[in-house]
Amino acid sequence: MPTGIVVECQDDRSQHRNKAQAMSVLAARIRDAQIREQQSKLASDRRSLIGSGDRSERIRTYNYPQGRITDHRINLTLYKIEAITDGDMEELINALSNEHQADLLAGFAED
């Protein structure tokens, strides 16, 4: 498979030894290129998962003095922070699943 990597070796007087050495250098450079590609893909995937940490990437805000919880992904505000912290998350989960289903349907409509 062509890679576009070129090596040449003229260290020895023997053509066969030069060719063998060039092939080993070529194999090392191909392995190095593959490792760098995998590492850059892994790093970009990690960056996309972590994000930048800006306030604009927030998911949910809990405002205890006002008794309010806001999910910024779906623009849902509930004034039931006590019930949600006690474990009654059914309304929040239903809203998230409805939004997820709407996203899936929109994805199918685009295809």
Q: What would your notes on this structure say?
A:
The protein is elongated. The chain is 56% helix and 10% strand. It contains 3 helices and 3 strands. The protein is mainly alpha-helical and 111 residues long. The two termini are 33 Å apart. The model has no long low-confidence stretch (mean pLDDT 90). A hairpin with a 4-residue loop joins strand 2 and strand 3 (76-78).
Keywords, separated by commas or semicolons:
single chain; about 110 residues; mainly alpha; 3-stranded antiparallel beta sheet; 3 helices; 3 strands; about 10% strand; elongated
Q: Total number of helical segments?
A: 3
- Global geometry: elongated
How far apart, in Å, are the first and last alpha carbons?
33 Å
Radius of gyration: 28 Å
State the helical fraction: 55-70%
Structural class: mainly alpha
* Order of H and E elements: HEEEHH
Sequence stretches where pLDDT stays below 50 over 5 or more residues: none
Major β-sheet strand ordering: 1-2-3
Largest sheet: 3 strands, antiparallel
Note the beta-strand portion: 5-15%
For the secondary structure, the number of strands is 3
Please tell me the overall pLDDT: 90
Short description:
With 111 residues, the protein is mainly α.
Topology:
Elements: H1 15-50, E1 60-63, E2 68-71, E3 76-78, H2 81-85, H3 90-110
Antiparallel strand pairs: 1-2, 2-3
